[in-house]
Amino acid sequence: MRGRTLSQVMTVLILVFALGPLVGCGDSEDEGSSNAPNTTVQPAETTVQPEEAAVENVVVRVSGTPGTTYSGSYGTFQSAQSVDDTLGVEPADYEIEGSVSDILAVVFRKSQPADEETLKVEILVDGEVVAEDETSEEIGVINVTWSPQTGQIERRGPVD
Predict the structure, then answer these.
(1) What is the pTM of this model?
(2) Residue range 78-111, pLDDT digits in tens
(3) Is 1 contained in some domain?
(4) Quick one: three-class SS letters along the chain?
(5) I need a labelling partner for 114 at 20 to 30 A (CA). Which of 3, 34, 130, 148 fits?
(6) Per residue in 19-36, pLDDT tens?
């Protein structure tokens, strides 16, 4: 189940918990056998091993033309943070607290129309860029996702 997403695993677990009592419907003498569905829950929980792919020291860096206003959010399934800021001369770094073991999603957009201004987003792990995208569209949007389990990068939005 290494390739499954957290939502797929959660769906399986919900189905097991919801349908488990229906499998054991019978006399009270059969109660010992009603525990059988619980054995299907254990493998589902132990085969998902996000800890082995968990990554620490993850930073979302936003840079571009000084004075560019931007807003958006970044985070994982467990927590997301909202941002509404203006770029300075130095990039803005947003540290991800704890470790990242599932998909990290970053979505930022320019808040004000600006033809010549650029907005760039990078995801860094231990100081190295693992995903990035940028836009110079008038109201450009950047949507980047990255997973430490697969290392996949997905970029969505207009190509400049």
Answers:
(1) 0.63
(2) 889 999 999 999 999 999 988 888 899 999 999 9
(3) no
(4) CCCCCHHHHHHHHHHHHHHHHHHCCCCHHHHHHHHCCHHHHHHHHHHCCHHHHCECCEEEEEEECCCCEEEEEEECCCCEEEEEEECCCCCEEEECCCCECCCEEEEEEECCCCCCCCEEEEEEECCEEEEEEEECCCCCEEEEEECCCCCCEEEECCCC
(5) 130
(6) 344 334 444 444 444 444
Domain that holds residue 26: 6-48
Domains: count for the chain: 2
Q: Given the structure tokens 């990290």, which residue do they identify?
A: 104
pLDDT in tens, 112-159: 988 789 999 999 999 999 999 999 999 899 999 999 887 655 444 444
Q: What interhelical angle do 6-23 and 38-47 show, nearest 10?
A: 170
Q: Does residue 38 form part of some domain?
A: yes
Which of 153, 53, 147, 40 lies closest to 103 in space, CA to CA? 147
